[in-house]
Design goal:
Layout: H1 2-33, E1 38-47, H2 52-63, E2 68-74, E3 79-84, H3 92-101, E4 105-120, E5 123-127, E6 133-136, H4 140-149, E7 153-161, E8 174-182
Parallel strand pairs: 6-8
Antiparallel strand pairs: 1-3, 1-4, 2-3, 4-5, 4-7, 5-6, 7-8
């Protein structure tokens, strides 16, 4: 009697694992459909960054932020160059908090990212890895290029800013595009 019960239990476990695998396939396929989407680099302009010894604490704080692969401090330029893990995005607010926690003042966040142009509530947006959206500021030539390139994968550079305390359409940062090009 016990052997039959174990057989049923093994069958149940096998079917349950197969079901879980099938449920995860659409997510895996979606991730493979657009490889390499995500932030490529974030440069944080930092006020007060003047000596290499002081910069060590800042570097430690920035390395603790989720998805950070590499941090390079350019003390002479007052900048921290943060590279995320391949195909991921960084939470910009977490970078700013890490700079403040290190005793410095974050100023400008320059972002380079690779994503698919889309739209959110009528506003242009860049879809990055794991469904992360970065709103894009309208204006100038970027507006016409955004309209003609919707749905394509592009490489975008620009400065991220918080336009409203609670964010724009639920997103706290908007990227003012300085350049973008089709990504191959």
């Amino acid at each position: 009697m016990e052997i039959i019960g174990m057989t049923h239990l093994k069958t149940f476990v096998t079917l349950s694992l197969a079901g879980l695998l099938l449920l995860s396939l659409p997510q895996a396929a979606a991730a493979q459909a657009a490889p390499g989407l995500g932030m490529l680099e974030v440069i944080v302009r930092v006020d007060g960054l003047s000596c290499p010894f002081c910069a060590y604490g800042l570097e430690k704080n920035l390395r603790k932020v989720d998805n950070v692969a590499r941090v390079e401090l350019r003390v002479d330029q007052g900048r921290a160059v943060v590279t995320p893990k391949h195909g991921t995005s960084l939470e910009l607010g977490a970078l700013e908090r890490a700079v403040r926690d290190g005793g410095f003042t974050p100023r400008e966040l320059s972002v380079t990212a690779r994503g698919r142009l889309t739209e959110l509530n009528g506003a242009p947006a860049l879809e990055l890895s794991n469904g992360v959206l970065l709103l894009l500021a309208r204006g100038g030539q970027s507006n016409a290029l955004l309209e003609s390139s919707r749905g394509t994968v592009v490489r975008v550079e620009g400065v991220a800013s918080q336009d409203q305390p609670k964010g724009h359409n639920g997103h706290p940062y908007t990227l003012t595009v300085s350049s973008f090009e089709a990504a191959g």
